[in-house]
Amino acid sequence: MEFENLPINRKDSIPVARMVDEMTDDLELDVMGGYQGMGRSVLTADINRPGLALSGYLDYFASDRIQILGNTEIHFMERLSTSELGRRLERMFSFEIPAFLLSRNLKPSKMFLDMCNRRGIPVLQSRRSTDEVISRVILFLADEFSPETMIHGTAIECYGVGCLIVGLPGIGKSETALELVERGHRLVADDMVTLRRRREDSLYAEATPVIEHHMEIRGVGIIDIKSVFGVGRVRNTKQIGLVMQLEEWNQETQYDRTGLSEEYATILGVRIPFLLLPVRPGRNIAVIMEVAALNHRLKELGIHPAQRLNERLITMMNEGNA
User: Fold this and answer.
1) At residue 8, what are phi and psi to the nearest 5 degrees?
2) What are the structural domains, with CATH classification, of the chain?
3) Which of 65, 118, 305, 307 is buried most deeply by CB count within 10 Å?
4) Model pTM?
5) Which residues are marked as active site?
């Protein structure tokens, strides 16, 4: 199955208002000023502490980022004379700034707040510590700007391993996932799976909100997994650790029989272990997937059963030749 041509969605910007709406409870935010600028665009997931800009050095001022003001910046501004502070702020405000975010319930000077109000630059205040503010804002923005795509398949958590099941329509993805749920594993999404890259090496599956935790079984119809099996058999998101593709058994295809070779699928730039599983009568795909998930966990622990057996056979043959 081709994963290279999947449509990729990536946000170019988000308004400051969205960050306020989503993070008000998490950061205990208050809006102190610049209300008319809540539509200003945040263009990057990075943040900036404008200490150098306040000192007058603006050559590499990262003005397009959320500006975090902590104890250092606020106390530095308090030490400046009114005229000097005004000159430095005028120079800094000549750049397009999305918003200022103050930590520790710090309060800026009246001059700073008045200038932000005149220019429509939102001033936000959080009760959290500076470290907490920085880490939580970066995580939120990284999630907002992360690339995502949508794929036809099923995502399920099997023995703690996030498994993405793909294949042609009617091959049995939903039926296999249903058997896994009945055996105690947890459904993430069925039919349409949203995949999102977080950081450079992590791919997460999420359910589409409209059909969340629902599954289509041909001959039965739509079933609600959460209602039928309980909330313990579903989850909203899961990191994908294994991609398994189902296909009709083909006598001419050479399927892997030893597990010595490692194959990978690349989705949104993330390489994930890949297995091609042939389907035909008599093969219990759900059990095979359970074993594949457990085998994957062994490999993550540094235990490779196929390689161990191969090394043992080579040792025995060498001893026999000797």
Assistant:
1) -110, 130
2) 14-144 (3.40.1390.20), 147-309 (3.40.50.300)
3) 65
4) 0.80
5) 152, 173, 191, 257
